[in-house]
Structure formats: structure tokens, C-alpha cells
Amino acid sequence: MSPSKSRTDALMAGDELSSAAQRERRKRIVDATIALASKGGFDAVQMRAVADRADVALGTLYRYFPSKVHLLVSSLAVELERAQEKMDRTTVPGDSPYERVLFVLGRITRGLQRNPHLTEAMTRAFTFADASAGAEIDRVSLLMESMFTKAMSDDAPTEEQKAIARVIGDVWLSNLVAWVTRRATATDVANRLELTVRLLLK
Amino acid sequence: MSPSKSRTDALMAGDELSSAAQRERRKRIVDATIALASKGGFDAVQMRAVADRADVALGTLYRYFPSKVHLLVSSLAVELERAQEKMDRTTVPGDSPYERVLFVLGRITRGLQRNPHLTEAMTRAFTFADASAGAEIDRVSLLMESMFTKAMSDDAPTEEQKAIARVIGDVWLSNLVAWVTRRATATDVANRLELTVRLLLK
DNA sequence: GCCGGAAATAGAACACGTTCTATAAACTTC
DNA sequence: GAAGTTTATAGAACGTGTTCTATTTCCGGC
């Protein structure tokens, strides 16, 4: 089914690229993706345009990322990691898990809403991903989960906390999608998230 | 943006087609869609193949459903309505909302899992839909919400119950997608749903 | 029955994701 | 530093969703 799997996976993992030139190419590709997505959303991330902008050949792009969905989900992971790092450098205010989770949620949500096109591109790729992008999806899911468990407590999360974090993640994503597709306003999203977290943590 | 909107909407609404021939065409199209999706999932629902199988021209197909996503989401609505009707004829067992919701959830989930390809096609279309399919999406969302609120109580749902139903719907969909993309087993899904409903209703 | 406009048809055409081919450049290893 | 291998390049080619065109069929009002 996928003859060159191991090589491709190695390239996708990203941390372990043989040469500096390759790490650079990869970065240029992700940057181009984010730039195009920020400007025009999912549809504007056209593989030929990404290749052009990143100054690589189309074939090279496909060697690094086996599909548009992989590309966008990997970029989402990159963005979430950035957000996570920023969050780690912040002291999250609030006395209860409820307050702290809401703070984190609000912060990230507003961050994403500041760049609607990018958010649209990434959430659509994320939810459209098929089995072949399972690894990337799991990576993002774990990032999200840990984001919320960290907000609940500094200690290692309990199973229940993980479950709560997953539920919050699901609701969060679904509301982000609703916002992106104009079926919900930013206020709707904030209200629903607040309500959800209340149901789960109060 | 969409010059022929009103006409298209009329056709899409489906209940109000001018002639019997048109209602028939529409039904043939949805049937063909479901048949193809059942056999090979999202990718097998090719517009030319749907048109062929429904015995309509490609242009006609597009007159009735402006995109593949509209087509699949409308089919999902049809299927959910069927499930809802079946459920309405059933007396849902269980003394608490918790038990009753779990029953409904388990029933529908197993129903969908009996036809994995169809489920894959529909959930992917649903989550990939963009703003232009907002109406269809809302229709399906409402169906889902009412499914769960009905399980909670026979009376008109409170705001809190609606909120809970929405959260359950979000988690349900997300787990269905995880199952469809092989990131979760049927058991995983059942466990997570149970856990979620417990958190919300116990 | 006939006419005019709407709807349906067959099929070409186009756009973009993806794959393939042939060639060139960049590396490894000796 | 030359030979062989891997990686990158340019661009053609292909598949499928979507749109367009020209023609034909259908349907409601006369």
C-alpha cells in the first residue's frame, strides 16, 4: 500500500532530518503553508502554491508531506506547540480547575480567532483527515489533552482528568468548527465552552 | 456569490419539489449515494458514479445538490431521521436520564458501526462541510440534539439539558470519527461515551 | 395541439490534489 | 575525487469535483 513508508515517516517526524538543508526546507514549507492558510484558508493552501512559495519542487513537497492534510495537520501541531510553550511560561490564574481551564481555553480560543483563515484551514484538515494521517492526528490530540490536564493540576493527571480533558477537547474543536463555518459567533463559542466546563468541573 | 440560490435551496429542501418526477429523481440520487457510500465510503461516492447510478445527468445531480458534501450531509439527515423514527417507536428503558441516554447512544452507535463505510462517508462529509452547507449541518445538529434531549425526558428540554445534549453530540461525533479513522476501537468508543455521559449526568 | 420557458441531457472543459518521468544536483563511501 | 546512491527539480499526466455549452425534453398556459 505504502511502499516508501519508513522513509516518508522519517521525513515527516521532522526532528530527525539528515541535513540542515532538509530542516530548512521543511521549515520553509510549513511557513509557506501557514502564510497561505492565514491569507485564504484551506482552499488557498494549494500544493503548487505552497511549493512555489517554499521554493521547492512539487515532488519535494510530497516527499516531505504525503498529502495536503498531513501538511496542514503538521502545521497545526507546530502552532499548538507554540501556544503550549507560551502557556508554559504563563502562570495560569484561578483557584479551581474550573477557573484555570476556562482561562486556558479562552486564551487559546481567542488566539485562534485572531487568525480565522488559518484556523479554518487547520480545523478542516484536522477533521477531514483519514486513517493515513492517524499519527499526526494523535499527536495533536495528545497536545490538546495535555494542555487541559496541565491547567487542571500540576501533578500527573488522573484517568478522570484525562477523560474530562478529552471531552473538553472534543467540544472545543466542534465549537471552533461551528465558528469557522459561521454557524456560531465568538460569543456563542465562549458561552458554550463556559457551560461545558461548568458541567464537567463544578 | 450564489446567483441561483433560491431555486437551489428549494430543490435542496426536498419536501417541496414541483413534480413527482422530481421527487423521484431526488430519491434515486440519495439512494445511489447511500449505496455507493455503503460499498466504498467517501471516496466511492464519486459524482459521476452517483449520477450514473441514479440515472440522471451530472448537471442534474448538481442542480439538486450543489456539492458532494451537501449530498452526503443531506443523506445523513435522511438516515438520522430514519433512526429517530425507529427510536420513537421504541420504549427507551432505564430509570434515569443517564441510563436512557446511554441506551440511545449505544443503539445508534452500534447501528452506524454496522455500516462502517457509510458512516465514514457521512461523518467525513459532515465535519468537512464549509459555510455553504450550514443549513444542512444545522439540520443534522438539531436532529442529534433532539435525539438526546428526548432520551433525557419526555418534557420540553431545559437549557441545561440542551447544553448537555450538545456536549454529548460533540463527543459522540468525535468518537465516531476516531473509530472511522481507526484511532479508536468500538470498545474505546463505548467506554468513552459511557464515561462522558457519566460525567455529565451522574 | 402549440409555444415559451424551465429542467434535463450528453459531454467537453477546467481546477487542483496527486503521481509519474526524466534529468540534474548533492551527498556518501571508497 | 570518482562512482554510485539518494534527493531535488521541472514539468507532464491523471483522477475526480465542479462548471460550462449546446441540445433536447418536459410542462403549464393559451
- The backbone outline of chain A, from C-alpha atoms, is globular
Q: Under the CATH scheme, which class of the domain at 68-200 in chain A?
A: Mainly Alpha
Tell me the β content of chain A: under 5%
Query: Sheet bearing the most strands of chain A, described?
Result: none
**CATH architecture descriptor of the domain at 68-200 in chain A:** Orthogonal Bundle
**End-to-end distance of chain A, in Å?**
48 Å
- CATH fold type of the domain at 68-200 in chain A: Tetracycline Repressor, domain 2
Q: Largest interface by residue count? A: A-B, 30 and 30 residues
Question: How many distinct helices of chain A?
Answer: 10
Mean pLDDT of chain A: 89
Q: How many beta strands in the DSSP annotation of chain A?
A: 0
- Percentage of residues in helical conformation of chain A: over 70%
Radius of gyration of chain A: 18 Å
List the quaternary state of the chains. homodimer
- Helices and strands of chain A: which structural class? mainly alpha
GO molecular function (chains A, B): DNA-binding transcription factor activity; transcription cis-regulatory region binding
Pfam families (chains A, B): TetR_C_20, TetR_N
DNA-binding region (chains A, B): 46-65
Protein name (chains A, B): Transcriptional regulator, TetR family
